[in-house]
């Protein structure tokens, strides 16, 4: 794999399908201007979810991505049984704030690695609301 020459390591040979991104920068990093986060885990406090998002943003910027520092709306907390309502709220609130532009990236913090919640989020986001963002799910135990 080849990375940007400004990183300490510009080439790497993956082993067993794994590699470490430490000290590397991507050549053509994605741009994430409009993003949001939904916290579905009752065990993750608001300040922890905010800190996690900021650490993720910082990590992406360090790798060479253009990633907006702040989410479009504050991190939204919702119960796991309120997936449809949470997605609808985040989607409509973001559309209003962005004058019709779509989110590009949504972070969903899950309470565990329960496949049913994961599947529900994917189904609602892709079929009911036709959301065109990249969805990333994070499990918090």
UniProtKB/TrEMBL annotation:
<dbReference type="InterPro" id="IPR032473">
    <property type="entry name" value="Argonaute_Mid_dom"/>
</dbReference>
<feature type="domain" description="Protein argonaute Mid">
    <location>
        <begin position="14"/>
        <end position="91"/>
    </location>
</feature>
<dbReference type="InterPro" id="IPR012337">
    <property type="entry name" value="RNaseH-like_sf"/>
</dbReference>
<protein>
    <submittedName>
        <fullName>Protein argonaute PNH1-like</fullName>
    </submittedName>
</protein>
<dbReference type="Pfam" id="PF16487">
    <property type="entry name" value="ArgoMid"/>
</dbReference>
């Amino acid at each position: 794999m080849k990375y940007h020459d400004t990183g300490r390591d510009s080439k790497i040979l993956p082993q067993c399908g794994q590699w470490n991104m430490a000290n590397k920068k991507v050549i053509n990093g994605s741009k994430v201007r409009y993003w949001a986060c939904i916290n579905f885990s009752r065990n993750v406090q608001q300040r922890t979810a905010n800190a996690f998002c900021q650490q993720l943003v910082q990590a992406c910027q360090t790798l060479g991505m253009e990633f907006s520092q702040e989410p479009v709306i504050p991190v939204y907390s919702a119960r796991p049984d309120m997936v449809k309502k949470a997605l609808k709220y985040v989607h409509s609130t973001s559309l209003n704030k962005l004058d019709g532009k779509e989110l590009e990236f949504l972070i969903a913090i899950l309470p565990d690695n329960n496949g049913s919640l994961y599947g529900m989020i994917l189904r609602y986001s892709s079929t009911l609301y036709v959301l065109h963002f990249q969805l990333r799910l994070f499990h918090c135990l």
